[in-house]
Amino acid sequence: MVRAGLYADYVRRPGPDNPLGLAAIRFDDGGEIYLHGTNRPHLFAQDHRALSAGCVRVERIEALVAFVLDWSIVDVQAAMAGERTFDAPTAGVPIRLGYHTTFLSPGADPRQHEDIYRLG
Description:
Largest sheet: 4 strands, mixed
Strand order of the largest sheet: 3-2-1-4
Radius of gyration: 16 Å
Distance between the termini: 25 Å
């Protein structure tokens, strides 16, 4: 995010203004790629959201953390209510990411989206 010019090069304080939002799930222990919340939730309302700097923003991060940790939403909200971004203590979550530009819906024509990363 620093390299992309989105943020100045300094350490972000944990909490609601942190780009990771209030919760983050690491892909692997010590890794630098996360599934995470955001300090800019209004971005989810945009049709064109190719705004990632490498991680994956999650719109319903509380529900995902609850699922991954097998916690109640109340417990997740309590963990996220502190002064720090909650780094979910997972034992390793198998994640498969895909990059698709065509989507199928039952009874509808295929919907093609722009190949924003020019991988096709």
